[in-house]
Structures are given as structure tokens and as C-alpha cells.
UniProtKB/TrEMBL annotation:
<feature type="transmembrane region" description="Helical">
    <location>
        <begin position="235"/>
        <end position="254"/>
    </location>
</feature>
<keyword id="KW-0472">Membrane</keyword>
<protein>
    <recommendedName>
        <fullName>Cycloeucalenol cycloisomerase</fullName>
    </recommendedName>
</protein>
<feature type="region of interest" description="Disordered">
    <location>
        <begin position="1"/>
        <end position="42"/>
    </location>
</feature>
<feature type="compositionally biased region" description="Basic and acidic residues">
    <location>
        <begin position="10"/>
        <end position="20"/>
    </location>
</feature>
<keyword id="KW-0812">Transmembrane</keyword>
<feature type="transmembrane region" description="Helical">
    <location>
        <begin position="196"/>
        <end position="215"/>
    </location>
</feature>
<feature type="transmembrane region" description="Helical">
    <location>
        <begin position="117"/>
        <end position="136"/>
    </location>
</feature>
<dbReference type="InterPro" id="IPR020532">
    <property type="entry name" value="Cycloeucalenol_cycloisomerase"/>
</dbReference>
<feature type="transmembrane region" description="Helical">
    <location>
        <begin position="156"/>
        <end position="176"/>
    </location>
</feature>
<keyword id="KW-1133">Transmembrane helix</keyword>
<dbReference type="GO" id="GO:0047793">
    <property type="term" value="F:cycloeucalenol cycloisomerase activity"/>
</dbReference>
<feature type="transmembrane region" description="Helical">
    <location>
        <begin position="86"/>
        <end position="105"/>
    </location>
</feature>
<feature type="transmembrane region" description="Helical">
    <location>
        <begin position="54"/>
        <end position="74"/>
    </location>
</feature>
Length: 338
């Protein structure tokens, strides 16, 4: 009968619509799961960031073994001149940029080059590390009493080798911080008070920053051409000073592409890194004017030479803010890039 056929047709249409809705829901659920990645609280939600963090972490044993497991224990550095030190830095730093061009992650293959996490992470660390070496190393000379005495090409009286090596180990440090900060945030997500959550994270980041700074100082203790006036003071107090770098950078770097729905652009990445660098600069200089050197610097002699070979804000209108300082000859001699 006509009425019966119409009812059957409507029932068939409703069933088809329900099946389509179920299929769409399943597809959405699958896509959401793919975007979220693993349920592990350690891993990033963004698949490009997740791959990038694993890549930098997996690459790190190469430069660690090369520097701390081969060059230092075998004392190969005794045969190195400026060129060999420069090549060592390049061998450690260049793969951070070159390998992801060859080993392309599944998600990165779908993205434009400048939208990939590893590109933005490299840029952030490169800017932060450059500022750190070019400017903040002079605080090591004049506040911590630490110097480099190995032969090296220099930029602003800082070995170029340290610019390159910094890129590798800063990436390693910040990958560790990303994983652990994410885990901490997941563990305390049920605490209702935002203030309590903030202080828990801040305390953890401060602890991680200090441990990172201290472990770096300890691991390079067997390299004789990183000299310290007072090694014990450097470990105890200097590590607090060095930890300022990471107390600012760890939480700021963590934000990079942490929310998949809000990916960062390259300009945003660069601006954020420069902002972190400015924050560290302010904190380091506050230490200089409020606490001062952690040891008596034995090469203190003339303020004019400190101004000539240091930073412009290490003087107060040309006089009297610091002890008169002479930079050791091995910091100002040799090949120099100006």
C-alpha cells in the first residue's frame, strides 16, 4: 500500500542518516585521537612537536659521547687549534638543522617547511644561545671568575666554538624540560587553585634549572681549559647564577606549539626568544649590581679595559660600578672577529 511504502522509505532514510552520523562521529573521534597522539602525559599533543622532541632527544647522545666520551677523556683537545675547535662545534650543531631535512617525520611531510616544530625550536634556541654567548659570557668573566683559555676564533671575545656547542646542549636541556614540565602539569591538573599550581611549577622549574646548571659545570670539570678562580664557589653559587638562564627559558620555550590549535609563526618564535633573552639579561644584571662577584677576581686591574672588552652596561657613566678589571690575555689575544 502507498502509505506503508512511504513509512518504509522514511524509516530507511532515518537509518541511513543514523549510519552516516555514526560514521562521522567515528571519524571525528579518530581524528581527535590522532591529534592528541598518545595518552601519555609526557608527550606533546601536536604531532610535529612530538616528533621534534623525540628527534632532538635521540640526537643528543651523539654529541654527548663525542665531546664527553671521546674528546675529553682521550684528551684530543691537546692537539686542537682554532680550526679543530671550530670543526668540533660545527659537527655537533649542524646536524640539528640538517638531519630533519633528510629524516622527515610523517606529520612534517604534510606541513610547509616553516610550520614544522623542529624549525621553530632551532630558531628559538639559536637566538637565545647567541645572546647568551655574545653578552652573558662576560658575566662569567666578571662575576663568576670563569674563563676559556683554549685556542679559538672569537666573537666579542667569546670563542665561536661555544656558540655552536651551546646550540646542541641547550636543545637537549629544553627537550628534557618540555617532557618533565608537561608531566608536572598533568600531575597537578586536579588542584583547583591556580596559585598553588603556579608555585608548584615554579619550584620545579627552579629545581630543574639549578640541577641543569650544576650538572653542566660538573660534567666539564675534566676539561682543563675552562678555568675557574674558585671551583667550589662556582658549583655552589655560580650554578644559581647560571640557573637564571633556564628559570626564564624553560617555561617560555615550553609554550612553543604546545597548543595544536594555536601554532606559532617564525616571527612570533623569534620575538618570544628575544623576550626570554631580555628577561635573563635583566636578572643577571640585577645580580651584578645587588650581589656582585662571587669571588675576588684576581685579574681585576682597570675599569677602562673592562669597558673596552666587556659590555656597555658594566660601567656607570664610565666609572666606579665594578672593581677595576683586566681581562686575561688569553681572552683578548689570538684571532678575533669584530
Amino acid at each position: 500500500m502507498p502509505g506503508s511504502k512511504v513509512s518504509q522509505r522514511r524509516a530507511s532514510d532515518r537509518k541511513a542518516q543514523k549510519d552516516n552520523s555514526d560514521d562521522e562521529a567515528a571519524a571525528v573521534q579518530k581524528t581527535t585521537k590522532s591529534k592528541k597522539g598518545s595518552d601519555s602525559p609526557w608527550l606533546a599533543a601536536d604531532p610535529s612537536k612530538r616528533w621534534g622532541e623525540f628527534f632532538f632527544l635521540a640526537y643528543s647522545p651523539f654529541w654527548i659521547v663525542l665531546c664527553l666520551g671521546v674528546v675529553v677523556p682521550l684528551q684530543l683537545y691537546e692537539k686542537y687549534d682554532e680550526l679543530e675547535y671550530l670543526l668540533l662545534g660545527l659537527v655537533c650543531a649542524v646536524p640539528c638543522w640538517a638531519l630533519p631535512l633528510v629524516i622527515v617525520g610523517q606529520e612534517d611531510a604534510k606541513r610547509p617547511f616553516f610550520h614544522r616544530y623542529w624549525v621553530k625550536a632551532n630558531l628559538w634556541i639559536a637566538i637565545f644561545g647567541f645572546v647568551g654567548n655574545y653578552f652573558w659570557t662576560h658575566y662569567f668573566y666578571t662575576v663568576l671568575g670563569a674563563t676559556y683559555s683554549f685556542p679559538s676564533y672569537k666573537l666579542n671575545h667569546v670563542p665561536l666554538t661555544t656558540f655552536l656547542l651551546t646550540h646542541s646542549y641547550f636543545l637537549f636541556y629544553h627537550m628534557i624540560s618540555n617532557f618533565t614540565i608537561r608531566r608536572i602539569r598533568h600531575a597537578i591538573r586536579h588542584i583547583s587553585s591556580r596559585t598553588v599550581r603556579f608555585f608548584i611549577q615554579a619550584l620545579y622549574i627552579f629545581f630543574l634549572s639549578y640541577v641543569t646548571a650544576l650538572m653542566e659545570a660538573v660534567t666539564i670539570a675534566n676539561f682543563p681549559y675552562y678555568e675557574m678562580v674558585d671551583r667550589k664557589a662556582m658549583y655552589l653559587y655560580g650554578s644559581f647564577f647560571y640557573a637564571i638562564y633556564f628559570f626564564a627559558s624553560f617555561p617560555m620555550f615550553f609554550r612553543l606549539d604546545e597548543e595544536p590549535a594555536k601554532p606559532w609563526s617564525l616571527p612570533q618564535t623569534a620575538i618570544d626568544s628575544l623576550a626570554a633573552a631580555m628577561l635573563v639579561t635583566i636578572l643577571l644584571d640585577l645580580w651584578r649590581i645587588s650581589i656582585g662577584p662571587i669571588v675576588n677576581i684576581p685579574w681585576a686591574e682597570s675599569l677602562e679595559q673592562c669597558a673596552a672588552h666587556g659590555l656597555p652596561w658594566l660601567t656607570d657613566a664610565g666609572s666606579k660600578i665594578l672593581p677595576k678589571i683586566r681581562v686575561q690575555s688569553d681572552l683578548i689575544n689570538g684571532p678575533l672577529i669584530v
